[in-house]
TrEMBL record:
Coiled-coil segments on the chain, per record: none
Start and end residues of each W2 domain: 251-418
GO biological process: regulation of translation
Signal peptide: none
GO cellular component terms attached to this protein's record: cytoplasm; membrane
Name of protein: Protein krasavietz
Any one Pfam family match given in the protein's UniProt record, by short name: HEAT_5MP1_2
Record-stated family: Belongs to the BZW family.
Residue numbers spanned by region Disordered: 1-21
Superkingdom of the source species: Eukaryota
């Protein structure tokens, strides 16, 4: 029976671990202590602060502790959930050389100096840009727990950082948090950002930036959903002289409401609802969303004309269009109760017939249908005929309407002469 031979073992041999395989202990508080010591030596000399941070990046691991670094520069120490300064490790836990410690009476030049500190730091260490953007989103979630003066200072800095491109404008959307919205903290903070931006760069710059980032589509989500929400929202912007931003929101809201109205009408037509019920629905919706009659009638035209599959032959499409539109004359009539609505509809028809070549010769027949069914009055037709509201295809359409307009004018003259003879 063979015996198992033991393998020889080297004694006294120590296997060395390569330096790159050794994991350095995560020590954010050691990093904090080093940064606080350096900043305290700089005092409020911003040149010294930038010089120190530039050099410290060669010794301290900014890539690993970037979040802690920006916590310290903004709040003075490492922030823990809830927005408080961490008390772990050895004191001191915070430094006075930070944004939150600038005087409560805001001095924009001081705030801009801090802006430059952060910009220079990120130019020197490009990898900090992404860390900084994530850090701001985190800090914005803590805004409820900061003191009113700290919130004010943060709002100034956020407006400066957004306007200089350090953080994207949509970073503020993290404020759309149920706890922040419920207590009006979200909207109040956002308005503070807008106010500082307007003060520094003007309302036109703010307007363009909001529109470019599509922020206006989210504004209402910053307000609690209560009966008073619309009034509170409106008053908040008016009281802070931000009427232009309120108008931008209202314009966007109107566009969305018009799209919803078109969907509502389209579904009603597809379901075959009675015109009476459809008219009632449209009126209720438009009253709620304050959509004007002259806008509604154009939406009705676009929706009604999108229903059929149109014949591609010009000689056949006219009769098809007249037959189709006859079904909806009462619908059009309900929303052409004033001259502006009638003229808008007529111009909409002109634009449609010009843009769809097969309808070029259908214009006159459609207008005649609407005249006979009291959708468009003779006064509006004559006004359109004499004035150039829309030059697209106008000469061709005027030529189509010439005989009818002459008939209208002669009838009007005969009526006038009859009245004078009486």
């Amino acid at each position: 029976m063979s015996q198992k031979v033991e393998k020889p073992v080297l004694s006294g041999q120590r296997i060395k671990t390569r330096k790159r395989d050794e994991k350095e202990k995560y020590d954010p508080f050691g990093f904090r202590d080093a940064i606080i010591t350096g900043l305290d030596k700089c005092g409020n000399d911003f040149e010294n602060i930038s010089r120190y941070l530039d050099g410290a990046g060669n010794k301290l691991d900014y890539r690993r502790y970037g979040e802690c670094l920006f916590d310290i520069l903004i709040a003075g120490g490492i922030l823990v959930p809830g927005g408080a300064i961490s008390q772990e490790g050895d004191p001191p836990y915070k430094t006075d050389v930070c944004i939150f410690n600038v005087p409560d009476d805001i001095n924009l030049e001081v705030m801009k100096s801090w802006e430059q500190v952060v910009i220079k730091l990120m130019r020197r260490y490009k990898y900090l840009e992404k860390i900084f953007q994530d850090e701001i989103r985190k800090i914005l979630l803590f805004v409820k727990y900061f003191s009113p003066p700290e919130r004010k200072k943060l709002s100034v800095m956020v407006s400066l950082w957004i306007s200089n491109g350090s953080i994207p404008f949509n970073s503020v959307l993290v404020l759309n948090n149920s706890h922040l919205v419920k207590e009006h903290v979200a909207l109040d903070f956002l308005i503070e950002i807008f106010k500082w931006w307007r003060q520094e760069k003007g309302v036109n710059s703010l307007y363009s930036a909001i529109k470019k980032a599509n922020i206006e589509t989210h504004l209402m989500s910053f307000v609690p959903d209560t009966k008073q929400s619309q009034m509170y929202f409106r008053n908040a912007f008016m009281e802070n002289e931000l009427e232009d931003i309120l108008k931008l929101y209202n314009d966007q809201h109107q566009q969305q409401a018009k799209k919803e109205l078109q969907i509502l009408l389209s579904e009603s037509l597809q379901e075959g609802k009675s015109l009476k019920d459809t008219i009632t629905e449209i009126k209720e919706f438009s009253n709620r969303e304050t959509i004007q009659e002259h806008e509604i009638v154009c939406i009705i035209w676009s929706t009604v004309m999108s229903v059929p599959e149109w014949n591609k032959k010009e000689e056949l499409v006219t009769d098809q269009a007249v037959r189709h539109l006859k079904q909806y004359t009462n619908l059009f009539s309900a929303f052409t109760q004033n001259a502006r609505s009638e003229l808008n509809l007529l111009l909409k028809i002109q634009d449609y017939c010009y843009s769809n070549m097969t309808f070029m010769r259908a214009f006159q027949k459609i207008i005649m249908l609407f005249y006979k069914t009291d959708v468009i009055s003779e006064q509006v037709i004559l006004k359109w005929y004499k004035q150039d509201y829309n030059v697209k295809g106008k000469m061709m359409f005027v030529d189509q309407m010439k005989n009818f307009v002459e008939w209208l004018q002669n009838a009007e003259e005969e009526s006038d002469s009859d009245a004078s003879s009486d």
